[in-house]
Write a structure and sequence with these properties.
Helix content is about 35%, strand content about 25%. The chain is an alpha/beta fold. Helix 4 links the parallel strand 8 and strand 9. Helix 3 crosses helix 4 and helix 3 packs across helix 11. The longest helix has 19 residues. The protein binds 1,4-dihydronicotinamide adenine dinucleotide and 3,4-dihydro-2H-pyrrolium-5-carboxylate. 3,4-dihydro-2H-pyrrolium-5-carboxylate binds next to strand 5.
């Protein structure tokens, strides 16, 4: 008798079972805390392997993780390309393989793009809940791509902002963003205009040089720095990196992959998981940066969530 072939769960099905990124919050908070607990937390996750594809300006990331608390084993394969000529192809594409951890059998192949968009935004939301100033009124998003949309959705679901602003390098995309989302958004002509006076800032661009200057940032603001995941790419300038309290998802990853951290020489204060565990304080009264690179265990718990929901309905 042959083994059961893996199921394929495509983007539409993933979206159906994960219609709100906030569904992932409890699992992600636990995974971040477990990751930062070291061996005792039961998360096995190396820093991802990123293979450059120099001829085409692309990268293939391989992101395996096992979470003992969830008894879940996955690897995500994610490609990201800097300058795609065909704008109908997304800059990031991903697939998650979910294995039976007891015997290594491949159980499911899941679309990873929806998972990547939603788990990243959910992790930024976790950071924001902990680190944003009291009475935050203005949200500013720099970038108008996939991550901008997923961040807008969960941030406006969880928090109450009086004003949401967007800036994008090409203004048409920002205008389109403002016309597509559910609430009012002010389209700004410059990053400086968007950032000035903002309490919470999300940088989610493909920039390779700083787009956000410390000069513009209101003291006490919180920044989720989501882009610039290569050691020579930047979104934030040195002033901002050095004059903020710096939180990361993974110290090892930040010191390997983040141009903003490596090139500025900024000191890492804590991993988000350490704040969640209560071993490091959050310091919301200070200007804070959460440098997000994206962790494999986030995909593990998200894929398990989707697979379990899919299984329950089949
Ligand atoms: N931290 C994490 O867990 C994750 C981070 N990312 C990163 O988030 C960023 C955004 O990803 P997506 O929204 O999926 O990409 P996207 O391609 O959908 O959107 C990128 C946006 O950046 C803008 N942009 C492109 N080049 C730029 C430049 N040189 N300067 C300023 N803006 C520029 C584009 O106009 C577009 O609005 C990327 O850097 C990506 O690698 C993506 C997935 C997970
Ligand atoms: O975590 C992730 O999937 C990624 N981070 C940067 C590019 C893709």
């Amino acid at each position: 008798m042959g083994s059961t072939p893996p199921v394929f769960i495509g983007a539409e099905e993933v979206e159906k079972h994960l219609h709100r990124a906030s569904l992932l919050l409890p699992a992600l908070e636990a995974a971040l805390a477990n990751f930062s607990a070291g061996a005792a937390g039961g998360v096995v996750q190396p820093v991802r392997t990123v293979l450059p594809v120099p001829r085409h300006g692309g990268y293939l990331g391989v992101m395996p993780a096992y979470s003992a608390a969830d008894d879940a084993l996955t690897t995500k394969l994610v490609t990201f390309y800097e300058h795609l000529k065909d704008s109908s192809v997304p800059s990031h594409q991903a697939t998650v393989l979910l294995f039976d951890p007891s015997n290594g059998t491949l159980k499911a192949v899941l679309d990873g793009s929806v998972i990547t968009a939603k788990r990243t935004a959910a992790v930024s939301a976790i950071a924001t809940k902990l680190l944003m100033p009291a009475f935050a009124e203005v949200l500013c998003i720099l970038g108008a791509g996939v991550q901008a949309y997923s961040h807008y959705d969960i941030f406006t679901e969880l928090f109450t902002f009086k004003e949401v602003r967007i800036w994008n390098r090409t203004k048409e995309r920002a205008v389109k963003f403002a016309s597509c989302v559910s609430g009012p958004v002010r389209v700004c002509s410059s990053a400086q205009e968007a950032v000035t006076g903002a309490d919470v800032i999300v940088t989610a661009t493909m920039a390779t040089a700083p787009i956000l200057s410390g000069d513009w940032v209101k003291p006490g603001a919180h920044i989720n720095a989501v882009g610039a995941s290569r050691p020579d790419w930047r979104e934030l300038d040195d002033e901002l990196m050095k004059n903020s309290v710096l939180f990361v998802d993974s110290r090892d990853a930040a010191l390997t992959e983040s141009g903003d951290v490596i090139l500025s020489g900024a000191e890492i204060f804590a991993e988000l998981g350490e704040v969640l565990k209560g071993t490091k304080p959050a310091l919301p009264e200070k200007t804070t940066v959460f440098k997000s690179l994206g962790m494999a265990v986030e995909d593990t718990v998200a894929a398990k969530f989707v697979y379990d929901a899919w299984s329950a309905g089949n």
